[in-house]
Structure formats: structure tokens, C-alpha cells
Amino acid sequence: MVKARKYVVNKHFQGVPKREDFDIVEYELPNIKNGEILVKVEWVSVDPYMRAYNSKYKPPYDQFGYQVAVVEDSKDPRYPVGTKVVSHSGWCDYSIIDLNGKDAADGQVYKLPDLKGLSESYGVGCVGMHGVTAYLGFLEICQPKAGETVVVTGAAGAVGSIVGQIAKIKGCRVIGFAGDDAKVEWLKEIGFDAAINYKTADVAAALKEAAPKGVDCYFDNVGGELSSTILYQMNDFGRVAVCGSISAYNDTGLPQAIILQPAIVTHQLKIEGFLVWRWLHRFPEALAELIKWIHSGQLKPREHVTEGFENIYDAFIGMLNGENVGKAVVKL
């Protein structure tokens, strides 16, 4: 028997998630059965969607999330002991994964790709779901063309920072919005043509100065008034990929924002939301390309690392408060 720990959400969040909204439960795992593996977790991801999807589940529930783990016991020959695995098994230090179960069928359990010497933590970030979200969400929906102007909000985060760098690889001019001056400077360091602190700038004026000929593609991670302002500066037939709305995740009521329809109609915009799982069959292609770009130096990932199982909650809240630059991960 293996003693394990996990975070269990005991009630729906009201505003910012509180420590008392979680219980850390200690329990013993049973012996594994045929088709199962026992894994020891090494890296855990903390992400905005964990806040956004809280209301979709009935408490108590195990906190979901991506992890990189190593197989310690196996009753499936495809996953021998020592195999590194990426799964959606959540905030825990050990887990049993049923390789014939729903998560495996949905593609949310797979072997960690050959990272060719890169940190294995990348498996829950730039070479995981977040990197694929940036790669396919941006390229498939925005269909960028060399010379076009691209705007990214949440640009210093896990997805936004990758989107901006992919846009540069594709020959675009890229403008990023972030929430403090240090993040703005980092975005310029990794190749953004302009970066704007939305908390201190006159957003409309700053964007007009950075993109005097208008915006062709917009990758939206934040929603709210910032996104509404950007839509009013888009060019005809502009394309918008809507990935998230982190600006409102902790709000208890509907946020107020500028009406969007005049901009959408006048500029004949294409606005499309997406979940990355629609392209599940293309994950290997995306991961291979991301690994190639990182090794070539065209893509420069950054991580915000917190250590310790007991500090996962703090890492989660810090990420929601914008304390991370790049991908927020926890090393167990």
C-alpha cells in the first residue's frame, strides 16, 4: 500500500479561492489492477481554467490539473516502470491511472515526449497542453500572415508568451499586454515589438501608437474592457481567437464592458472561441514543432517554479494574482 495525499475542493469558490476551500486528504492507494499504473508525481501545473471550471463540478471533488509523473508500478506493458507520463490526475503526490479509463480515451494520458534534454516540467507547459493551445489556437483560428499585426493579452503568461513568440516566428509584428513593468520589459526581451502595461497606460492611445495601421489578429486571454478596446482598433476582416477571460474569473457578478457589436459588424470580424481538444489528433505535430523551436532558440520559454506539495495552493493564488512570469509550475 502507498500512502498518498491530494487536494480536495470542498465547496464552490466565492471570489478568490480561499485556503479553507481545499482539504488535503491523506489516504492509502489500493494495489493496482491489470491495465493500471501507479505513478509518483514530480511536477504539477496551476492554471486559470482551474478557477473558471470550478462551478462545473459538484464539491467535494479532487482538484484536477496536469502533472508529470514517473511510473513506479505497472500492470500495462506499454508503460513500464520508469516511464514518464503526462496526465490530468490533479494535485496529488501519487495516483493510480487506469489506462483503459475515460482520461486515457480522451487523450489526457500520454507518455512525456522526448524533450531532448529540456526540463521535464515543460511537459505541463510549453511542450504540453499550454504550448499546443498557443500553437493550434493561434495558427488555426487567426491564420496569421507575415507582416500582419498581432495583439496578445495575458502576454506574459503560459499561453500568451508562446503565442507572441510563434507570431514572431511567422513574421508578424507583435504587441503584448501585461500587468506590470517587469513583465513588459521581459516581453520586449523575447522579441515582442511593443509591450504595454494595461494597468498604467491609456490603453486605446498606447495601442494606437504601437499599431497605427490597426490590428489584424488578436489572441484573447483576458476578456473584459481591455479586449473590448482592442476590438475597436482591429482592421477589416480581423481574426480573434478567444482562449479565456481571466479578468473576470474571480468576479461574483457579470463584468461590465464596452458593447462589442459595432466593432464586430463594422470591421466584419471573425471571433471564435476554442478548446484545444478539438485538435487532439494534431498534438504530436504541435509538440514536435515546439520542441524544435525551443532547441533552435526561436522560442524561449520561462517558468515560475514553486516547490513543495504543501505550497500548491499558494502557487495557484499567486498565478491568479499575476505573480508568475511565464508558466506557473510546482515541483514536488
Automatic annotation (TrEMBL):
Q: Which keywords fit this entry according to its UniProt record?
A: Acetylation, Cytoplasm, Fatty acid metabolism, Hydroxylation, Lipid metabolism, NADP, Oxidoreductase, Phosphoprotein, Prostaglandin metabolism
Location (main, coarse): cytoplasm
| The keyword Translocase belongs to this UniProt entry's keyword annotation | no
InterPro entries to which the protein is assigned, alphabetical: ADH-like_C (IPR013149), ADH_N_2 (IPR041694), ER (IPR020843), GroES-like_sf (IPR011032), MDR_fam (IPR045010), NAD(P)-bd_dom_sf (IPR036291), PTGR1 (IPR014190)
Residue ranges annotated as transmembrane are: none
Q: Does the keyword Ribosomal protein apply?
A: no
Which Pfam families does the protein's record reference? ADH_N_2 (PF16884), ADH_zinc_N (PF00107)
User: What's a single GO MF annotation on this record?
Assistant: 2-alkenal reductase [NAD(P)H] activity
BP-aspect Gene Ontology terms: prostaglandin metabolic process
For this record, the Gene Ontology CC terms, alphabetical, are:
cytoplasm
UniProt record similarity statement: Belongs to the NADP-dependent oxidoreductase L4BD family.
> Under which name does UniProt file this protein?
Prostaglandin reductase 1
Species of the source: Chrysodeixis includens (Soybean looper)
